[in-house]
Every structure is written in structure tokens, then in C-alpha cells.
Amino acid sequence: MELINTVVRRNTFGNVVEFLGEGGEAVSVTIASGGGRADDELVETAKQMMVQIVAFDRADIGVPQTAEGSAQVYTFEYQDKGIVRVMPGISLPNLKAVQDEVNRSAEDLWKDALDKAEAPVGWAVRARDAGGEIVATCTYEDIQLRDA
């Protein structure tokens, strides 16, 4: 999903953060009301909640199958302003699919940075296999070279 807007709604039942994507896609996260948090804090909390959902997702449910058997499980790492966010338990059928997802995710981070008038450097997204070995990576420089 390519994120095009984020909306925060407050009501008596809770705070709702909606992540809106191209083509009408949307993800909504409801956060208990209270605390008087700012919109940017609610958005960050919603992102962290989604990461935890992925982290605790069971890898054996809905895993695509390959000719060799079940898909491999990878851990994705995202770097943003020196902070590394880790998302374990991502199932993909092969290394090409892993590299494609790493590239797509890095491009999304780059677009977000440009929208904020930032120019990050270094690696953007990388993936590790079950043994912890880095099997795919994409740097911000890679993206700039592709866009040139």
C-alpha cells in the first residue's frame, strides 16, 4: 500500500488513526482515548501497534507455498533518522520477492523523506533470513541512482 494520507479522528470511544492508500486502501487503528496526546504521537503509536501485530503474527497461517515447500520467513529492518525498526515474521516465497519488497519499502521511505524536505543517507531497508544473515538491502543512494 502506498500511503497518500494519514487522518486522526477523536471521539468518546477512542482515537482512530487512518492510513489511507492509493486506490481506496485503508488501515484504521483505534487507540484508547485519554492522555491528551498530539496527533503525531497518536500516529506513531498506531505505527508501533501495527509493527507488533506483524511481530506476533503466526508464520504458519496464510504462508504462500513455493515449489520447494513453504515460504521462508524474514526479518525486515527499516532505518529512519538513525532509528531502526524491526519487523520479524515476514513470509515471502523467494529471494527475488524479498529484494522487490525491500526496494519498494525503501522507495516509500525515500518519498516520505522528500515530502518532509529531508535527504537521508545510508541503508534504508534490509532483510535478514532466519539465520540472521542479511540477504537483501536497498540504500537511499540506490534509489537516487534509479531515479536519475
- How many E-type strands? 9
| Element string (H = helix, E = strand) | EEEHEEEEHEEH
Q: Note the gap between the termini.
A: 24 Å
Uncertain runs are 57-69
Given the C-alpha coordinates, what overall shape results? globular
Count of distinct structural domains: 2
Report the average pLDDT across residues: 80
Strand content: 35-45%
Structural class: alpha+beta
Most strands sheet: 4 strands, antiparallel
Number of helices: 3
- Largest beta sheet: what is the strand line-up? 7-6-8-9
Q: Helix coverage percent of residues?
A: 25-40%
Radius of gyration: 17 Å
Explain what this protein looks like in three dimensions:
The chain has 148 residues and is an alpha+beta fold. It folds into two domains: 3-54, no CATH class; 60-147. The chain has three helices and nine strands. The protein has helices at residues 39-55, 95-115, 140-147, and strands at residues 3-11, 14-21, 26-31, 65-66, 69-70, 72-80, 83-92, 123-128, 134-139. Strand 8 and strand 9 (134-139) form a beta hairpin. The protein is globular, with a radius of gyration of 17 Å. The chain starts with a strand and ends with a helix. Mean pLDDT is 80; it is low at 57-69.
